[in-house]
Amino acid sequence: MSKILIIDDEKSIRRALREILEFEDFEVDEAENGKEGVKLATQQYYDIIFCDIKMPLMDGMEVLEAFRKEKVLSPVIMISGHGNIETAVEAIKNGAFDFIEKPLDLNRILVTIRNAKDKSSLVEEKEVLKKTVRKFKGSSIIGETPEILTIKEMIEKVGPSEARVLITGENGTGKELVARSLHDNSPRKEETFIEVNCAAIPAELIESELFGHEKGSFTSAVKQKKGKFELASKGTLFLDEIGDMSASAQAKVLRALQENTIQRVGGEKNIKVNCRVLAATNKDLRKEIEAGNFREDLYHRLSVILMHVPSLNERKDDIPLLAEHFMTMVCAEHGIPRKKFSDAALKALQEVNWTGNIRELRNITERLIILCGDEISAEDIATFANPKK
């Protein structure tokens, strides 16, 4: 049974609406003022909310604003005996689903309810999908070996905190996946996750990329640009391959982490930033510090929590699970029926020397799917992969 909330200071209006709605088999709650209505709407979900505009204590527009702040997703139908086109437009702009003038017309009410219920169903479906996607993301680290189970436990513990994390491991082991899982398990999961590959950006551009620049600060700076620290504010900034960052950029990142402020290139204004910083590297930063290539103070700022992602050769018992996962994913991407690995083929995959780690396994799985028959054999692995002698 659909549930409807009526917020109106006039008892006669509440009674009339309740009689109409209960006759149509709706379950109805009432609130005699805006504050009471906001309290009810934040405690439970209503399929539709009717809200008067002119009320004491808190008027209808203030109720809409409170709903927006509290993320109340129910469609809100505004009602008023003092309405005009300007009032209706303002209500819609502030998030109302529709506007009905008093005296209330039965047919108009029922048509609006039907339309609002359609929207309510879509909102509900969207929320279910979002939860499903979040659940999938949070469980997308495939594996059951002790090393991977340890990483999953760490993500559950560390994700909800604000602690900075330094993720280490070889190329292709899934460091970005760990960073995304930390973000998806954090209070910032609804905000942006921004990745910067420090090794892919030229040294002369990395500072502009991270901190932004002012118009005219250098030859090609034809307009002001926000950097990744600003864009990731309230969210998560993932600095991949941090070991390849220039000395100048390292100094500025250190200052940003210490003071939570940045300056754009060519600017003098301090800009407050609020992003959680995660970093990753395939280098031994201790050795880089000894060689004078990486700042020790920055290392300590970044490595509040250290997480090491094992190579695929260190977790070969996970290869069958990963291969089956990539089989399902790649076949879906190509729009072809799912193929099958023979038991011997899965054992053969465990004999390969995976220098490219998980990225290499994914690529070889795709190659096997494209070039082989419905069942992939050990002979196919020998032909298209590189078994260790």
TrEMBL record:
One Pfam family here: Response_reg
Domain Sigma-54 factor interaction: 141-370
Gene Ontology BP annotations: phosphorelay signal transduction system; regulation of DNA-templated transcription
Keywords for this protein: ATP-binding, DNA-binding, Nucleotide-binding, Phosphoprotein, Transcription, Transcription regulation, Two-component regulatory system
Residues with PTM 4-aspartylphosphate: 52
Superkingdom as given in the UniProt entry: Bacteria
MF-aspect GO terms: ATP binding; DNA binding
Response regulatory domain mapped to chain residues: 3-117
PROSITE patterns recorded: RESPONSE_REGULATORY (PS50110), SIGMA54_INTERACT_2 (PS00676), SIGMA54_INTERACT_4 (PS50045)
Name of the protein in its database record: DNA-binding transcriptional response regulator, NtrC family, contains REC, AAA-type ATPase, and a Fis-type DNA-binding domains
